[in-house]
Amino acid sequence: MQEFIDFIKKRQPVTLIIIAANIIVFLILSFLGDTEDGYFMFQHGADFAPSVVENKEYYRLFTSMFLHFGVEHLFYNMLVLLFLGDTLEKAAGKICFLIIYLAGGVIGNIASVYFDMRTQEFSVSAGASGAVFAVIGALVCVVILNKGKLEDYSGRRLLLMAGLSVLQGLTATGIDNCAHIGGMAAGFLIALLFHRKLQRSQTGSC
Q1: Which candidate in 44, 68, 73, 180 is catalytic?
Q2: What is the DSSP letter of 81?
Q3: Tell me, what's the pLDDT at 173?
Q4: 180 catalytic residue (yes or no)
């Protein structure tokens, strides 16, 4: 138990706050109903393209980032965020990290809504995956700026992780790949906008 406490104490604060927020929201919704029920999740802020576009419920682009379909969905996203988010927060600083995470997640959801409207194939979606992929995209950018290395992450290792994550999304069911790809691209581009500050400091704020 003490080892776990020590491990958590070493994690970056914004990453931990985001993880805690996702867990708290999940526990509240689990108490109120079934988090694997699409209509229940829609009622509590999940993303749904027609509602965003036709009813102008733009808040769904944000609130859906803190909703998860079941404990496995939550666990996978938070586990990835615990390690990769912590690494990015150290490299980019608290404010830059928060901007990358939130903006990347929203942009990923916008990409998902756009694709759904184009194909006219609609489904209720939720999860932090777009924001997590924004973190992955930003880390790839930081590794490139650092000439192939960031802490324990080499460029090849990060690209492999990113590729495997995308492949997992393509082969699994119920995964919003547009949010993944959109989030990753957004994270990379946002990190690129901050490239001077990312190069100057590995621990400072944006």
Answers
A1: 180
A2: I
A3: 45
A4: yes
Q: Which long-range contacts (CB under 8 A, 24 or more apart) does 3-12 make?
A: 11/82, 11/86, 12/85, 12/86, 12/89, 12/90, 12/94, 12/97
Residue appearing with tokens 């690209």: 159
Q: What is the DSSP letter of 107?
A: H
Question: Rounded to an integer, what distance in angstroms lies between the CA atom of residue 201 and that of residue 97?
Answer: 13
User: pLDDT tens for residues 47-75?
Assistant: 999 999 999 999 999 999 999 999 988 98
The rounded distance, in Å, linking the Cα atoms of 9 and 16 is 10
**Has residue 203 got a pLDDT over 50?**
no
* H or E segment and range at residue 154: strand 153-154
Q: H or E stretch including 150?
A: strand 149-150
129 counts as catalytic:
yes
Q: State the pTM of this model.
A: 0.87
**What SS3 state is found at 137?**
helix
5, 73, 96, 135, 196 from 191: Cα distances, Å = 31, 26, 8, 9, 10
Task: Name the active-site residue from 51, 125, 129, 165.
Answer: 129
